[in-house]
Amino acid sequence: MTLPTVSPTPSVAVSPLLTRLAAERATGALLRDRGTLFLENGNVVHAESPATPGLDVLLTTGGGLAPERWREALDRAGARRQVARFLVDTGGLAGGELEICHLAAIFDAAFFALSPGSGPSRFRRGATHWIGSVRSVPAAAVERETRRRRELLDAVWPYPLLDSAPVVPRPAAPGQTVTARQRMLLSRADGVRTPADLAWALGRPAFHTLLDVRRLAAAGLVETPHTPAPPPAAEPLPDWMTQAQPPDVALLRRLRDALEASL
């Protein structure tokens, strides 16, 4: 018997508005509660989110750029929206390093900005970012990578509470090894810092830190928080306590008479 051919279900757009703006080749800023994507001719040219370290942190804390060079670039080229060009032209940063960190910042911020709980979308047409031109990414590629990252997190260890809870290390089992990258993360995990805090402290993309934490949890090297159990249901009251009782009229009259006699 020949089985019917089933067409694959089309992927649901991560952001219908982003898809539409890309088709329109729009230029401006797509704003959501957890971040902003900057578009130029429908392509994503920059992204930022309060949940992720920005390009400055990736370049200074995580990279080789001196903080004073970053501040100089902001002061001298920020108003002209040419910070990236200034860093490269003055020799403060190699073009390849800037491009790699910039792409990391785009995909990192977009992952959070396009998350399901990021609220409604708004578009500010014509808005640009002071970083200036580095490299553009097709909106479809940003959506595709965002979707892939969501699936990857759950494939590694499907416990989303890890993403916002303090990272609590556990002792390694006898013979268990960790990578240098994992050791660095665990050395900063003090039971108080969340993955986002660790990302800022290490100068790493926030998504990569989430992924590291989930891998460590899957290996038993980090505590996995679980949803607390709901409180037990209260014991039902006996019927005689819940049913309305008729008033004792005779008793009420005796109480009334006693009060009147005492006045």
Give the helix/strand layout.
Blueprint: H1 16-24, E1 28-32, E2 35-40, E3 43-48, H2 55-60, H3 67-77, H4 83-89, H5 95-113, E4 122-125, E5 137-138, H6 139-156, H7 180-188, H8 195-202, H9 206-218, H10 239-242, H11 249-262
Antiparallel strand pairs: 1-2, 1-4, 2-3, 3-5
Helix pairs in contact: 3-4, 5-6, 6-9, 8-9
Would you give an account of this structure?
- The protein is an alpha+beta fold.
- The chain is 45% helix and 9% strand.
Please give the share of residues in helix: 40-55%
Give the N-terminus to C-terminus distance in angstroms: 100 Å
What does the radius of gyration come to?
A: 29 Å
Helix-strand category: alpha+beta
Sheet of most strands: 5 strands, antiparallel
- Could you state the order of secondary-structure elements as H and E? HEEEHHHHEEHHHHHH
> Globular, elongated, flat, extended or rod-shaped: what is the shape?
extended
What is the number of helical segments per DSSP (H or I, 4+ residues)?
11
Model regions low in confidence, pLDDT < 50 over at least 5 residues: 1-10
What's the count of strands? 5
**Overall pLDDT metric:** 88
Portion in strands:
5-15%
Strand order, sheet with most strands: 4-1-2-3-5
